[in-house]
Amino acid sequence: MEEMYKFVYRPSKPFEPLFTEESLIFADKGDREEILSLDFFDDEYEVDRFTQEKSIYLLRQEGKLIALGSLIPAYWREDLTDPDIREVGMYVSPQYRGRNLGRSMVWLMTQICLEKGLVPIAECLFSNKASRATLESIGYVLDIRINVCTVHDGISVRALAQDNSVIAHADSVKTNDGYSFGPVEIRPEFENSGIEEKILSFIREGLF
Predict the structure, then answer these.
(1) What is the mean pLDDT of residues 108-127?
(2) Cβ within 8 Å of residue 44, ≥6 positions away
(3) To the nearest whole number, what is the mean pLDDT of the chain?
(4) Facing residues of 69 across strands?
(5) How far apart are CA 101 and CA 107, in angstroms?
(6) Contacts of 202 (CB under 8 A, 6+ apart)
(7) CA 5 to CA 161: how far, in whole Å?
(8) Which of 30, 69, 132, 180 has its CA 20 to 30 A from that of 206?
(9) pLDDT tens, 175-201?
């Protein structure tokens, strides 16, 4: 089963959405069955809970559901303990896809999140190039961390990781001039993804 990867918001350039926050309405009980039919949420409990918490936003046109946005507490993630974190989600009805509506919805959900003093994150499968492109186009970046674990005799394993999932690792030995690195091994799904260039950049900057 392919893993989900977390993206964090690092705004780099302005973005003009196709619609405004004022165009959105909160989902209510009357929207329940329609939302359930989208298979966007896991179950009825989530739909009922997030509707009550006013965490689901709808964009309608002449009564038709165009898109849905959500700001959901990451309650299922044991590694995300900050109560202010919200996962940004969006759904666009099939007939309206390819018009930048999803990008606009994610951007607006992110801005609403920030206005509330909350911390936006987003997740998608790394292989989902369309979702990754949408997130990256408005300022989201793959959340990666560098972990160093000393094994023995000055040899360390350097791991580039997202949450608890290792993306790449390399052995390193401390020398008088810094560190000497062994070959960098990268997980197959991250090959040709730009991760190798990022690692080389980290090495040059002394971060890896």
Answers:
(1) 90
(2) 32, 36
(3) 80
(4) 57, 90
(5) 10
(6) 146, 160, 208
(7) 10
(8) 132
(9) 676 666 666 677 776 777 666 666 666
